[in-house]
Amino acid sequence: MHDRDASLGRDLLAWLDEAARHSLPGPGVTRLFCSAEHRAVLELIAGWMREAGLEPHLDASGNLVGSCPRAAAGERTLILGSHQDTVVEGGKYDGMLGVALPLMALKTLREQGVELPYGILVVAFGDEEGTRFQSTLIGSRALAGTFQAESLDATDADGMTLGEALRDFGGDPEAIPALARDPERVLGFCEVHIEQGPVLEQRDHAVGVVTALTGIERHRVTLTGKAGHAGTTPMPGRCDALVGAAEMVAAVDRVLNATDNLVGVVGKLDVRPNAVNVIPAETTFTLELRSPSAEVRRAGRAQLLDAFAEIAETRGLSLDIEQTYSAEAVDCADWMIEALEAASEECGQPAERLFSGAGHDGLAMRDLTDIGMLFVRCRDGLSHHPDEAITAADADAATRVLMAFLRGLAKRD
């Protein structure tokens, strides 16, 4: 960006700094679905939508949707957007960049007097991370027509169901099925997102064009043993649920390190009764597996579940495994890849193709329409962390690429 002052990028980062203030106390950004922080940030995003010429409204699933007059009239519409929610102590840009950047692009096009000959929706999806309810892609599944009503029964740490939280927030669980869009009236879905990896930084490129999104599955594993006094119960014969879980976590690490194209994590662990002098009676942990190959992921899962069963039997523990989430890998549409590449070239930005190792709302939106994705370089490839960072120059470049993409789409037959 040597020939520009990156003013759009600086304005965009200022927007994102303001959004980051709507967070629970502590490092980074923590903003959960249907929380007070979620409500507050939507007021801010609604203002951005109005500046971009869109009319905002909260839909039944907790999405904030900004629509232009053409979209409201039922004309064929391009959907843009990303998610507002974060992981605990996350960063400013994961998700929110893809909400703010298209609004900055549309605002700028509006100021330039450019009128797009198709409808536009920009969506701030309510729940992509699944941090609060462990049930992700609620909003994007609603638009895609694949929402599953049983998701409403998922509970948070306080025992509140997703359905209850959504009603309190102003949503309407019973009306979610009616949110499904007509595929014939949708041009496609395009999301801008930080890369969450090191490839663009290694290539010294501001942006990259995504070819596919990884497949993801999540499981909740519960081991039940027997509590007892830690000082008076002999070591032989103990049914310690935490020791069994520790062996399983180690097995996960071994299998993942020995399997190409498979990654995963045990990211959450709960122990009951969680007392300093009591043998753990129950331990629950989460298992997440990711791979672009469904076959690799399924084989890894089978290997791990067999290992878990053997450990549980050896330790005298009962084992319960519940799959809480599954999404298969999806490809981005060739025409969308090519259009984003052409827009990047028009803006003087090299934009090689790369694969997304993270899941996004596109996993659900692919059931509705063609999807495309533009990655933006992030410092050290860091994401889901308070130190998440992008530069004003890269933010500016990505905004201009999206503007060129939107103009180029107007020329398509």
Short description:
GO terms for molecular function: hydrolase activity, acting on carbon-nitrogen (but not peptide) bonds, in linear amidines; metal ion binding. Helix content is 35%, strand content 21%.
How would you sum up this structure, described in words?
- The chain is α/β, with parallel strands linked by helices.
- The protein has twelve helices and 14 strands.
- The strands form two sheets. Strands 1, 2, 3, 4, 5, 6, 12, 13 and 14 form a nine-stranded mixed β-sheet that branches. Strands 7, 8, 9, 10 and 11 form a five-stranded antiparallel β-sheet that branches.
- The radius of gyration is 23 Å and the shape is globular.
- The mean pLDDT is 95.
- Belongs to the peptidase M20 family.
Keywords:
Aminopeptidase; 35% helix; 9-stranded mixed beta sheet; alpha/beta; 12 helices; 5-stranded antiparallel beta sheet; 413 residues; Alpha-Beta Plaits
Layout of secondary structure:
Layout: H1 7-20, H2 36-51, E1 55-58, E2 64-67, H3 69-72, E3 77-83, H4 96-111, E4 119-125, H5 138-144, H6 162-169, E5 186-194, H7 199-203, E6 207-213, E7 215-224, H8 241-258, E8 263-265, E9 269-272, E10 282-291, H9 294-315, E11 318-327, E12 330-331, H10 334-346, E13 353-356, H11 362-365, E14 371-376, H12 392-409
Parallel strand pairs: 3-4, 3-5, 5-14, 6-13
Antiparallel strand pairs: 1-2, 2-4, 6-12, 6-14, 7-10, 7-11, 8-10, 9-10
Helix pairs in contact: 1-4, 1-12, 2-4, 4-12, 8-9, 10-12
